[in-house]
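Weekly structure sync, notes
Attendees: PL, DS, HV (note-taker this week)

Item 1: DUF1684 domain-containing protein
DS walked through the input record. Source organism listed as Spirosoma endophyticum. Sequence as pasted into the shared doc:
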Amino acid sequence: MKTQSTYWFFLLLLSSILAFRPDNGYEEEIKSWHEKRVEALKQEDGWLNLAGLFWLNEGANTFGGSDKNTIVFPSDHSDAQLGKFILNKGRVTLETSAGAQVYEGDKPVTKLNIFPYTGKPLVLKHKSLRWFVIQRGDKYAVRLRDLESPYLKEFKGIDTYPISTDWRIKAKFIPTAGKKIAITDITGRVSEQDSPGRLLFIVNGKEYSLDATGTVEHLHFVFADQTNKHETYGGGRFLDAPGPDADGYTYLDFNKATNPPCAFTPYATCPTPPKENKLAVAVAAGEKRYGDH
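Item 1 (cont.): predicted structure, written out as tokens:
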């Protein structure tokens, strides 16, 4: 096993030395990618407008702008009484109060089954507010968006490290079919997620690895590194990579490392880096720390 590991180390080291270096268009490519990333954050389904996360109790949960409700929406953007969410053994029904201006698209809602749903979440709206139901383990919550959220209005962009092709690193894909990774989110809930494989790569002459979730065709990583202490988000960052080529190689482009949603709002439920993905190296690439959430 040690001999095989040594073989991969030197093969990766040689590959990183001989790796293709993108031309000057690479910097423009990354800038364009990051601009699209920032614009996506500002969209209606982006992370900047999250305005609340309300866990549902079994039975009726009243909601609206009044503090007499079980779930209190922002009073400056909500009528006092909008109705109630009824949770019954994993099913959620919405019943609105008389005269409440709650809509599904352009259709007014009086009573509607809103969870579970097929495909995309069923989104309801009232004035500038939008909401839908999410499930985390055996718990259910209403995720609220406000299209006039202060987090959206105050957003000025995200600082990044200088773009460098040194952080576009060739990596060897090692299949791990059947492996599970324990992923803990910031609420403390743990989920066992399938891991299609591990990527081995070289930084400054040393071998490191990251275990993926997602699929073989689209690899996803939640990782931590030594910059999390001061320069990047303390809860780690996200990174995606394409699946391996016919020879079993792909590229980790750390210039595309991003803050998780929890960097932008206190109302997200982000995964934290698993123990397998805590790197003992400073990855000075990608997005820097944003906000104090």
